[in-house]
Write a structure and sequence with these properties.
The protein has 214 residues and is of the alpha/beta class. The chain folds into 2 domains: 140 residues, Rossmann fold; 66 residues. Helix content is 45%, strand content 13%. It is globular, with a radius of gyration of 17 Å. It starts with a strand and ends in a 12-residue tail after the last strand.
């Protein structure tokens, strides 16, 4: 029986990836650089350090990349505070079911802690989670396993009784490398062959993961 479930946030619980993508597009377009969804998909699930490196490669200037990323972070906060992102289908059903079963829930997100806390509070789901580890609390972002290993260590979880829910390939790889069972609920990026080998299951929506969480 699983006693703990670790949730990713962006794209899994909250429909934030499309907001990020639009903000990124506006930012690059302001520099006269074309930016399409295929470009954004390269960043899904990675941390700020990795994103900055990709920005610098696209722009050709690290200082300009840092400036753009800072502007985009500020713009993103403005957007989500003006209109809180929607919760993904079945999220409340899953959280209520796990709460009724006495299963402890945690968050492992590449987003910074302040933004994670804001979004969980704004959507009314913060109370479901016993703990959070965010992107600015680790050195290495997904697909490195550090964030999941930190959740396990910080909250003294039993790996064999813990399962991860992820929407991105980078997130799946991080959980897998941490030695944790993982279920993928794809959002923007479809699983590849290796991902299928590393997950317990790939499901179409969060509610379909419940049978695997017993």
């Amino acid at each position: 029986m699983k006693t703990s479930v670790i949730f990713d946030m962006d794209g899994l619980m909250l429909d934030t990836e499309k907001v990020y993508a639009q903000v990124n597009k506006e930012g690059f377009n302001s520099l006269g650089i074309e930016f399409e969804m295929k470009d954004y998909l390269k960043y899904v699930g990675v941390g700020e350090k990795e994103t900055l490196a990709m920005y610098a490669e696209m722009i050709g200037d690290m200082d300009k990349a840092k400036e753009l990323l800072a502007r985009e972070d500020q713009r993103y906060l403005e957007v989500i505070k003006d209109q809180v992102p929607d919760m993904k289908d079945d999220l409340l059903k899953v959280l209520d079911t796990l709460e009724a079963r006495g299963v402890d829930c945690y968050v492992a997100s590449s987003t910074n802690l302040a933004t994670v806390e804001y979004l969980l509070e704004a959507t009314g789901i913060r109370r479901y989670f016993k703990g959070i580890v965010a992107g600015d609390q680790v050195t290495n972002a997904k697909p490195d396993p550090e964030i999941y290993l930190k959740v396990v260590a910080d909250y003294n979880l039993n790996k064999e009784e813990t399962i991860v829910l992820e929407d991105s390939i980078h997130g799946v790889n991080a959980a897998y490398k941490a030695g944790l069972d993982v279920i993928m609920v794809p959002d923007l990026v479809a699983p590849d062959e290796l991902t299928y080998e590393r997950v317990l299951a790939v499901v179409g929506r969060l509610g379909d993961a419940l049978p695997f969480l017993d």
